[in-house]
Amino acid sequence: MARRGGDWVYENNGGTCVAIAGADYCVVAADTRLSVGYNILTRDHSKICELAEKCVIASSGFQGDIKALQKNLSAKELLYQHQHNKRMSCPAMAQLLSNTLYYKRFFPYYAFNVLGGLDSEGKGCVYSYDAVGSYERTGYSAQGTGSTLIMPVLDNQLKSPSPLLVPARDAVTPLSESEAVDLVKDVFASATERDIYTGDKVEIVVINKAGTRREYIELRKD
Amino acid sequence: MDGSHANAAAAAAGGGEGTQRTLNPYVTGNSVIAMKYKDGVIMACDTGASYGSTLRYKSVERIKAVGKHSLIGASGEFSDFQEILRYLDELTLSDHMWDDGNSLGPKEIHAYLTRVMYNRRNKFDPLWNSLVLGGVKKGPKGDEKYLGMVNMIGTHFEENHIATGFGNHMAVPILRGEWREDLTFEEAVKLIEKCLLVLLYRDRSSINKFQIAKITTEGSTIYPPYALKTNWGFAAFENPSQGAVGTW
């Protein structure tokens, strides 16, 4: 039962996360399956955490690290509230997440994150990360085991303008909130077909001016 | 000198620089199976602990009560489980000494254990266990049953039924098919015995001596060990080499 070197400190608990930014809303979604190897540990585990009023994070990867990371960020947000008498904005949280990830550059959080919410002007924003904190604000993103199946579809459907254009064009999609949610349901259904780690249920969180709402859609359980 | 010899040996065995960390389990316990039922949570495991392929200890208790509201069951390295019980003793003692009428529930203990396991993993000095934490505590919505698991690197979750080790492969499919919210104690015992029997037949390291424990609002009960009836009277077992010419 001896384990080689440092292999045993990480495991991939699978799952996929997606976020789409709109003109005045943001959709963040993740499946609820927790796996280890070829086993499903549970079909009902949330990967999403509400960090601030208009800021939600979805993470896939090693669940031990994900929980620690999300708790860490939540705690820092609470401190921020105490010190600044206001909640953290999404762009501020985006920078904090990047710094927190890079802090463990030499023993990384095995977590692949998408941060979604409304920026200080009320426009939808999505930030996408790698495991060590490299990040970018985009109009939409997918991370996790199903990301390679989903990203091309989002690229096709959301036709984001090139970041090289001058003057810079808005990356947020002109789709309506319900159209974006439908797109999310479709991409998850597709990813579930071919990715063994994605399935069971998808938890969809929608943030807009009115607040935050949550819905659950059943996915294939095989 | 003698000192440097000892240091060199320690460095070779563990994490280097004279620090010793166990990275292999030695005395290990098997699967633990647990599920919620109508009145609370039921947990069961066998009472064996193996030393590699030797069945070294046959009367080991791998399920213990924690505080007033919880049960903990462990598979994996038995000495690490004993260490965890010491941590939990400290925790429940401090909790008691606050004398504020509040006591730690299963959810809090599960969260505490998750932090302990994760932090030991961060130091590359793990507690080599898979822990099952079950209990009942009065909450805002009445009596709330809780059942969760945490493994040696800190992966944790909550479910209606849990099994560790081989149980994950063999008992969980049975539980997923047959578990219901409103099982009576007798029905829950039958279901758990079905799982224990499968493990007895198919897990090389399990033994025919089990303990069942339950926890309800009244408190926890750990029943004395007992054996299950097994059936080996299959024709193919009577004369195994009958149909095979030239077997030894």
TrEMBL record, chain A:
PROSITE patterns: PROTEASOME_BETA_1, PROTEASOME_BETA_2. It is found in: Cytoplasm; Nucleus. Gene3D superfamilies: Glutamine Phosphoribosylpyrophosphate, subunit 1, domain 1. Component of the proteasome, a multicatalytic proteinase complex which is characterized by its ability to cleave peptides with Arg, Phe, Tyr, Leu, and Glu adjacent to the leaving group at neutral or slightly basic pH. The proteasome has an ATP-dependent proteolytic activity. This is Proteasome subunit beta. It comes from the Eukaryota. Belongs to the peptidase T1B family. Component of the proteasome complex. InterPro entries: Ntn_hydrolases_N, Proteasome_bsu_CS, Proteasome_sua/b, Proteasome_suB-type. Keywords: Cytoplasm, Nucleus, Proteasome. GO terms for biological process: proteolysis involved in protein catabolic process.
From TrEMBL, chain B:
Residues 1-12 have a biased composition (Low complexity). The keyword Ligase does not apply. Gene3D superfamilies: Glutamine Phosphoribosylpyrophosphate, subunit 1, domain 1. CDD domains: proteasome_beta_type_4. PANTHER family: PROTEASOME SUBUNIT ALPHA/BETA (PTHR11599). Belongs to the peptidase T1B family. One of its GO terms (biological process) is proteolysis involved in protein catabolic process. Its main location: cytoplasm. It comes from Lolium multiflorum (Italian ryegrass). PROSITE patterns: PROTEASOME_BETA_1, PROTEASOME_BETA_2. This is Proteasome subunit beta. GO terms for cellular component: cytoplasm; nucleus; proteasome core complex, beta-subunit complex. It is found in: Cytoplasm; Nucleus. Non-catalytic component of the proteasome. It comes from the Eukaryota. The 26S proteasome consists of a 20S proteasome core and two 19S regulatory subunits. The 20S proteasome core is composed of 28 subunits that are arranged in four stacked rings, resulting in a barrel-shaped structure. The two end rings are each formed by seven alpha subunits, and the two central rings are each formed by seven beta subunits. The catalytic chamber with the active sites is on the inside of the barrel. Keywords: Cytoplasm, Nucleus, Proteasome.
